[in-house]
Amino acid sequence: MIIFHAPDILTTGMLPPEESHHCAKVLRMRAGDRIEAIDGRGNRIRAIITDADHRGVSVDIEEVVASPLPWTYDITVAVAPTKNMDRMEWLVEKLTEVGVSRIIPMVCKRSVRREVKIERLAKIAVSAAKQSLKSVVPEIMPATPLPQVIKTLGDEAQRFVAYCSDDVAPRGLLSRLSRPDTDTAIMIGPEGDFTPDEVEALIAADWVPVSLGDTRLRTETAALAACTTLHIVNQIMSKN
To answer: Which one in 50, 103, 180, 186 has a CA-CA gap of 20 to 30 Å to 80?
Structure first.
């Protein structure tokens, strides 16, 4: 069954315009047809179409099933957007599939790309959530300067920054330093890496320097590897 994304369906009883067009015009669904939707906040909704208007499909809600993510911790990924926007879009898709709570495109001193189309990334996140059968869609934040990201994430229980060089401060392995079942922020720098003074500012703000292994990774690969590592640590520890 095709899944629709309708953030306000529980209060309006309607699909949003874009999803309504897809439902009524593209799929040619009609009154009496059953649909399934997610609100992006952890609810899966089963409903019957009552009015198949392509400008706003109305539904009668039959069932609301709580469908939160299968873990209790939040992961926030702050990552400098890649020069090639296709790679950033790929990253948003894959992070959504693996499971994160929030993605922050971050502007650093060596950033090549300083602006992103948030609406486009949000649509990719919605599509990936539906494809991977998730009822929770990660929040996509606007492009944010590094100093503001530090302030925004200052209350996260554990905060890690991954970079390439040990010249500023020694790095431990993320897989060994991460505590399970804990809200976590992970920061990945631009393709030219963080500057030494950026790393020093992060360490002063209690961000823990980490390595993701012995090989050099592209920005988008590093962000996905970090998120995957955090989930694996939690899965292993939860079984012990």
So the answer is: 180
- Listing DSSP states for 92-127 in one string gives HHHHHHH--SEEEEEE-TT-S-----HHHHHHHHHH
126-137 pLDDT, tens digit per residue, is 999 999 999 999
Burial of 74 (0-12, 13-18, 19+ CB in 10 A): middle
The strand ranges marked E within 119-162 are 139-140, 144-145, 158-162
C-beta separation of 134 from 110 below 8 A = no
Encoded tokens for 107 = 């502007």
223 Cα distance to chain centroid: 11
Q: Backbone phi, then psi, for 47, in 5-degree steps? A: -150, 165
Q: How far apart are CA 143 and CA 104, in angstroms?
A: 7
pTM across the whole model: 0.90
Q: Which residues are within 8 A (CB) of 212 and not within 5 positions of it... i.e. 6 or more apart?
A: 162, 173, 174, 222, 225, 226, 229
**What six digits make up the tokens of 167?**
């010249």
Kindly give the interhelix angle for 85-98 and 219-238, rounded to the nearest 10 degrees: 10
Secondary structure of residue 14 in the 3-state scheme:
strand
